[in-house]
Amino acid sequence: MADTLFLVLRKIALSLGEAASEKLSTEVVEAASVLTDFEHGMKQIEGEFMILQAFIGQVSTQNVGDRTFDAWLDQVRDVAHQVEDIIDEYNFLTSQAAGIDGFFKRKFRQAKSFAAWRNLSSQIDQVETRIQRLTTLKDRYGISVGEPGRSSTLQYARQLSLSDSSYLSDDTELVGNASEISMLTQWLLTERQDRLIMSILGMGGLGKITIASSIYKNQQIIRMFDCHVWVTLSQNYLVEDLLRQIMKQLMDQRAYMASGIETMSRVRLIEELQSYLQDKKYLIVLDDVWDKDDWLFLKRALVINNRGSRVLVTTRKKDVASLANDGFVVELKVLPYAEAWHLFCQKAFRRLEDKICPPNLRPWAEKIVKKCQGLPLAIVAVGSLLSYRELEEQEWSSLHNQLSWQLANNPELSWIMSVLNLSLNDLPSHLKNCFLYCSLFPEDYKVKRRWICRLWVAEGLVEERGAGTTMEEVAECYLKELTRRSLLEVAERNVHGRASSFQMHDLVRDACLIVANREKFAVVYGDSGITQVNSEVRRLFVQKHARSLKVAAASRIRSLILFDTQVASSWIDDISSNFRLIRVLCLRFANIHQVPAVVPDLLNLHYLDLAHTKVKHIPASLGKLTNLQVLDLRFTYVEQLPWEITNLTKLRHLYVYMLHDVQERIFDCFSATNIPGNICRLKNLQSLQSVSANKDLLTQLGELTLMRSLAIMKMHQNYIAELWDSLARMPSLSRLVIFANSKDEVLNLIKIKPLPNLKFFWLRGRLYEGVLPQMFASFEKLAALKLDCSCLKKDPINSFAHTLNLVYLNLCRAYDGEQLTFRAGWFPKLSSLALVDMECLNSIEIEEGAMKVLHTLEIVGLKSLKIVPRGIKHIKTLQKMVLTDMRKEFMDRLHADDSDIVEHIPDIQSFDSFDSEAVKKMVLLPHLAKKYGTGWWELC
After folding, report:
1. Name one Pfam family in it (predicted).
2. At 122, phi and psi to the nearest 5?
3. Lesser CB count within 10 Å: N end or C end of the chain?
């Protein structure tokens, strides 16, 4: 609830430490004594907020539903935002003066901004008054924070009642999860005598409790145990109360009362429970376990007695589920559409004899089921509500159109949000803010890992964890934690098996948007019924109808991400002029030809995304954006950057290139961008793509020791030594792309040493004497390799066949010979293989046992290949084969004489590159989705 406040307070602590006062140089503050008063006022506010931070730090979910507290906290949040504005304005004014040379020019700037400094001083006075007022209001209305009491008891009782309602459900209503129930039943009935711990894992609302309760009430299972207990842990409980609950279910009431258990200490309760279970075969269901540490208290009490006892845990967290014995975890997924539809009809049309949806309601019923996205909790609740409604189209269409509002406000449905919000309320403040941020993307949107991590960093949502770990790496830890908590789902993985995009369930998204809007964290325009944006909004995601958007001139917006690409550049200029203190500006895919004129004056900007626009020129004035961390100019027409770009010393990621051939088959498929000036000033750079090589630049690169990803174009042989000397000074370099200056440029890498941490390497250019350098056999961590235009004379496969971590291999015009051979045991982890445009290649031999986990095979433009390689038949893991520009004879054999070779491959695609529609569908759109997620083109 107070998480937005925590974010601001952390920013205050960073911005107003001892270093902050030094920013006000002597030359600035001597303009007027008011600036001295300003510094004093800022220090006063810092002291007040340090105390307030500790006070608000006690806030927990115990205050959920306390309307008085919510109203008070809303005022606190508003004050926090006002302080953030003061800090940003302060930094803005000092940044303006910092780059001015000459005594008289500086004095003129100071005089010009004197009114602004006085205004800030006045705002500080207002904040101090408001803080005093907040303290008075807290005392006047008896507002308490973090004190356990009636609200926490009510929450605990409410959670128990929700659990009990699932537990008491009718088994005949169970739909789906048949295999999971069968597996759990088998585990419980197995004759193994050791105590087994098993777990059911899944997000809230998937039916964990319903499945567990159906098993718990199964008489065949009950008869197998001497005693059984069902206990719900909840997020807030006392260990002693939990142990008493277990004992109360095990003992009859008279014995329980006589035993004195109600007054026993924790240690005594554990001993009593141990004694009771010592000679019994027991079944214990631990429902809704939130913390792995909870098991530390219980495992001592639940004795291991070798009588075949069982413990079943339900949880939303993967680390808790890992308490189970190896191989005894059931992870629930959403219901397939057919099962979701069946469950919905069972509930919504239960009064009809056949329980079949009437034809006039089917369109709306299908939309409602789709909105529930296979979540049983929502399907049952919404279906049950509709079962009492008239079977009229208007009634059903109305509920569908208001479903998000109904879920938040209708008492018959709001408990769905309560169940989903339990996970949200369990998040620490830093994770909660990041999770709320994920909800701002459109429904069903696949958010790319790298993009969301860089946005979080630019927004200030990520905490530093010391030297040696980048903020982006910390952000990736956040993503992993959110998936472990079953809040985000991994939507796609790259060829390395690493999560590349994530998705949020629509109903979870709805719950988050309500919280984000209430806490003034962000607003999504064009979605969720938002029709206007007030001046207090901090982040604005515009999905649709941007032309009708009006934003207050005194806007507090710090982030604007534009999904609606159908707006004129004049609209962007107008609206951006209101965002002087903005941190994130994303205009990706916008129809603009030049950088909006206001951008160079956005001195607080940390993230600027102009990818896929028609921008050609980057103004020198962009060098004023000294806070910029990310500059994304991918797929623009920029070929030259101004030398002033090297003033951006906080820059972490710089992308600037155009892709001329999406199939990447022409030699100069990527543009090469010139960066004049002293690039070694950009010491925080982690990504640089793609720059044109010159000796000075390549020498300076050695100063960029934080580099992780680098792409060099127009490479000459006489630059190799300088480049490799610089690369050797980049210990974290994991991605490297090198393109030779031309097809005729020969690169001699014979004596070059391998880069030990390289995971991705794309080398395009003729290799000296047509020989593969020895270093290719020494890339221990290499996972992806693309060799391009190498003109090799000898079969190169053997040279890197034993690279144990290689999962992606692309050979494009790399080999001038006639045969490639893949021996048994080679490429044990290879998932994707592409063989492209090798004109002389007429034979591919694949022995049984080679590439035993290959998933995707691409064969492109192999004009001399007439028959389908028979060894493909041995690769049983192949799921996809893509054939491009193959000769007719090859394709005829594929569909006739050689069809048995590929009959086990479920997805075989073929097309010709001259078919522009096929290229767009099968290459361009997947390429954009890979780079940017399910893109803007689907929203336009």
Report:
1. WHD_DRP
2. -65, -40
3. C
Q: Per-residue b/e over 581-618, b at no fewer than 16 CB within 10 Å?
A: bbbbbbbbbbebebbbebbbebbbbbbbbbbbbebeeb
Domain segments of the chain as ranges = 3-146, 152-331, 337-417, 427-506, 522-632
Tens digits of residue pLDDT in 115-130:
666 777 777 778 778 8
Based on the number of CB atoms within 10 Å of its own CB, is 191 exposed (0-12), middle (13-18) or buried (19 or more)?
exposed
- CATH class of the 427-506 domain in this structure: mainly alpha
Q: Name the residue with higher pLDDT: 250 or 62.
A: 250
What is the DSSP code (8-state) at residue 577? T
Is 174's pLDDT higher than 70? no
Is-contact 261 207, C-beta < 8 A?
A: no
Inter-CA distances, 215 with 24, 203, 212, 503, Å: 68, 20, 5, 31
Taking only the tens place, the pLDDT of each residue in 331-386 is: 999 999 999 999 999 999 988 888 899 999 999 999 999 988 888 888 988 998 88
DSSP string, 363-423: HHHHHHHHHHTT-HHHHHHHHHHHTTS-S-HHHHHHHHHTHHHHHHH-TTTHHHHHHHHHH
522-632 in CATH: which number? 3.80.10.10
Q: Output the six-digit token pair for 329.
A: 């975890």
Among all chains, which residue has been given the structure tokens 């169970």? 174
Which pTM does this prediction carry?
0.84
User: Judging by beta carbons within 10 Å of its beta carbon (0-12, 13-18, 19+), is residue 917 exposed, middle or buried?
Assistant: exposed
Position 63 pLDDT exceeds 60:
no
- Tokens representing 23? 């920013």
Q: Are 603 and 648 in contact (CB under 8 A)?
A: no
pLDDT at residue 761, rounded to an integer: 94
In whole angstroms, give the CA distance from residue 672 to residue 691.
Answer: 5
**Residues 582-608: tens digit of each pLDDT:** 899 999 988 899 999 889 988 889 999
Q: Are domains 152-331 and 522-632 of this chain identical in fold? A: no
pLDDT in tens, 863-897: 999 999 999 999 999 999 999 999 999 999 998 88
pLDDT tens-digit map of 289-308: 888 887 877 888 888 888 99
Least reliable range by pLDDT among 101-110, 218-227, 752-761, 801-810: 101-110
Report the C-alpha gap between 729 and 721 in whole angstroms.
Answer: 13
Q: Is the distance from CB of 804 to CB of 781 less than 8 angstroms? A: no
814: left (phi over 0), alpha (psi -120 to 50) or beta: alpha
Decide if 534 contacts 552 (C-beta within 8 A).
yes
What integer pLDDT is reported at residue 43 of this predicted model?
65
Cβ atoms of residues 836 and 858 within 8 Å? yes
Neighbouring CB atoms inside 10 A of 262's CB total 11
- Per the DSSP assignment, residues forming a β-bridge with 845 are 821
Strands 499-503 and 489-493: antiparallel
Residue that has been written with the tokens 């941020």 in this structure: 437
What stretch of H or E contains 82? helix 67-98
State how far the Cα of 217 lies from the Cα of 230, in Å rounded to an integer.
10
> Considering the domain 152-331, what is its CATH architecture?
3-Layer(aba) Sandwich (3.40)
If we measure between CA atoms, which residue out of 409, 350, 343 comes closest to residue 377?
343
Measured in whole angstroms, the distance separating CA 754 from the mean position of its chain's CA atoms is 33
Asked if 204 and 381 touch (Cβ cutoff 8 Å), the reply is no
Peptide bond into 559 cis (omega under 30): no
DSSP string, 284-333: EEEEEE--TTHHHHHHHHS---SS--EEEEEES-HHHHTTSPTT-EEE--
Give the pLDDT mean for 44-70.
58
Among 437, 457, 460, smallest CA distance to 87 is for 460
Question: How far is residue 85's CA from residue 119's CA, in Å, rounded to a whole number?
Answer: 12
